[in-house]
Amino acid sequence: MTQPSSAAPTSTGFDPEAFLVVPARTFDDLSVGEVFRAPSRTLTDAHAAAFQTVSADNHPVHYDVEWARRHGHTAPVVHGLQVLAFTAPGATLFPHVIGEVFIRFLELSCTFLGEVHSGDTLYPALTVTALDAQGDDGVVTTSATIHNQRGELVLSGQHKYLLRRR
Description:
This protein is of the alpha+beta class. About 15% of the residues lie in helices and about 35% in strands. β5 (about 135-150) and β6 form a beta hairpin. The longest helix has 11 residues, at about 45-55.
């Protein structure tokens, strides 16, 4: 019968820091027109209720069916900030693609173009629209879009990130 060894296992050459989802790229490796999609997501009443709890936004347009109908909506409206959250870069492969060159998220803007309701499926995407080199760093501008299951654009916006160059 063999006794368990207390010695450390021998190295296999595995490097956890090299275990990447996709090969990391820098600012200079990105191209205008590249698209980073997030998986589609169907919103449920549970998602809306969870966001309402976290945000403390208790406006009845978000949870009261009759109030929403009396005010011209077909159903309670999902919180706009919850819809915007689906454009988070981390919902896409973008953070994996840029690896360790990310410095910070600089800004975002958006326009809400259509209502989102429980049961809608959202299709978020970030598209690189500009690459502005600034010395050792660079600013990446992306358009942020969300379409619903009917192909309607419900959110349009822009993100800017500061990345290190090579």
